[in-house]
Amino acid sequence: MTRPSEASPVHDSVAAMSPGVRQPITIEQHGEVFRVRLSVLGETHRFTMRGADRADVERTAAAKLEELQRRARRRRGLGSIDRRGDGFRIRLHVGGKSHTFSVKTADRQVAEDAAAARLRELKLAAHRRVIGLSARVTFSELLAHFDAKEMPTLSRGTREAYVDSFRPIREYFLDVVGDPVLEDVQAAHVKEFLAWRRVHRRVDARPTKDGSARKGREAGVALSNRTLQKDRAVLHRLFEFAEQLELREGNPVARVDAPKADTRTPVLLTVDEYERLLTHCAGRPMLALYVLTLGESGVRCESEALHLRFEDVDLEGGYLRIVSGRDGHRTKSGKGRWVPMTPRLRDAMRAHAAAFRLVTYDGARSPWVFHHERTHKRYVAGARIGSLRHSFRAAAQRAKLPAELHQHDLRHRRVTTWLAEGRDVVLVKEALGHSDLRTTMGYTHLAREHLKALVDAPTSKPTRSGNRAR
Q1: Which residues pair with 337 in a beta bridge?
Q2: The last residue of a domain, from among 229, 255, 281
Q3: Do 239 and 381 lie in a common domain?
Q4: Is the dihedral of CA 155, 160, 165, 167 positive or negative?
Q5: pLDDT tens across 208-234, in order?
């Protein structure tokens, strides 16, 4: 007669297990078939035996368990797990060093889990030493490691934003908190940092060119939520970096909500304002072409337009080539693309190439569309222009344009006019280099022309042929 199915935990080969605890061996009998499950360091192994005596199955399972444990220990760096009194003595080998400790438990599986956890800690500590960090990484070490490994991979604009946010972050966590160990930083520290940051804005002592104080830099003035959002985002990325390197578990910033702030509304120039801006760029060929390039093509300012080379300008086809990854420079999207030129921009590029492409500086031609025309104490003639931000701002002031105007707003103006003209949004996305169509669609709220359809007199719909009025 076939016996009913039964499950029976087997005693450990070293000593009897306490009832109710997890067992490394479980045997289930189904008729003449025995199904054996072995648990070793979090891994499960199964096999079956048929037509054998139960005692033989238990002996075979115990032998297989011992062999699997030995292999797993060798694979994971475990030296040995031996029964000692009311617990187990565990010996681990990591980085050429032996580590021994004891665990008081009657359950071998509990001892194996403790050994695996301790082994992971030792391997992480060894890994940190290899990359030049201490076993218990401090906040200052994380900042230095991020600066050396991650910052060079970011675009120039992103690096500048990170450097600006790192100043208060460094001041708070190093000077106020006292350079804590990463594992000790909790969500409460992040919340306290944001509260501290709100009333500790950085005071810029440098005066403007006319000798006046810089706007919005007064001490004691509460910080805006937009700046708090940016600082929190940078801190979140810093701890994300630490988590990726397994320097700590979890990101404490993720458990703290970002301050709510209104999204900045771009300044969209009218046709007259746009032309006025270009007029006040006259006499400065690099600035004039730069503003026209931003306004007519919608390329990003410093990370794309100022990295254009003459070889990237296709005057015959009428395209600008945006290159990512050349000479270590990466665009925001990390992808290259072609951007069409308007006839106005095409003519301006042709005239610019005729005037500057063959000019030599110290016997060499400059490959850059936007380059310095003369040598200065901070740059040499023919070198790429890194920024035209101040020149742009000065031209905007001369043209009496809104003080809130940013050079990036010309990109917003280009996409908005394209959408208002009914251009294919997919083509607009491709020209702008957006990775997600939803980003492009986010500009539709700035193009208001389509809203007139709500108040225009409705037109009667034509009756389809073959339909009778009822």
Answers
A1: 322
A2: 255
A3: no
A4: positive
A5: 444 444 444 444 567 888 899 999 999
Tokens linked to 234: 């940078």
- List average pLDDT for each run of 10 residues in the chain, which is 470 residues long: 41 38 78 87 84 87 84 64 85 76 86 80 69 78 91 83 93 94 93 92 51 47 85 95 86 92 83 96 96 95 94 96 87 87 96 96 95 91 94 96 93 89 87 84 64 60 47
The end-to-end CA distance of the chain, in Å, is 84
> pLDDT digit string (tens) for 100-145?
888 888 888 888 888 887 777 777 766 666 666 666 889 999 999 8
Same domain, 424 and 322: yes
The pTM assigned to this predicted structure is: 0.58
Strand partners, 384: 371
Residue 333 lies in a domain: yes
pLDDT at residue 449 in the model: 56
218 and 72, same structural domain? no
The pLDDT value given to residue 176: 94
In a domain? residue 213: yes
Counted residue by residue, the chain has a size of 470
Domain range for residue 372?
Answer: 271-454
- With both helix axes pointing from N to C terminus, report the angle between 409-420 and 425-432 in degrees, rounded to the nearest 10: 160
Token digits for 310? 């003459």
Task: Verify that 228 and 279 share a domain, yes or no.
Answer: no
User: 193, exposed or middle or buried, with CB in 10 Å at 0-12, 13-18, 19+?
Assistant: buried
Residue 357 in any domain: the answer is yes
Residue 174 to residues 8, 117, 177, 235, Cα–Cα distance (Å): 58, 30, 6, 14
- Is the domain of 186 the same as that of 103? no
In a domain, 395, yes or no: yes
Residues 218 and 277 in one domain: no
Instruction: Verify that 299 and 341 share a domain, yes or no.
Output: yes
pLDDT score, position 153: 83
**Which segments within 57-150 are labelled E, that is strand?**
78-84, 87-94, 97-103
Contacts of 136-139 with CB under 8 Å at 24 or more apart are 136/181, 136/182, 136/183, 137/181, 137/182, 137/242, 137/247, 137/248, 138/179, 138/180, 138/181, 138/182, 139/173, 139/174, 139/177, 139/179, 139/180, 139/181, 139/182, 139/185
For 406-470, strand residue ranges (E) read none
Are both 170 and 120 inside the same structural domain?
A: no
d(CA 128, CA 46): 37
* Amino acid in the structure at residue 264: R
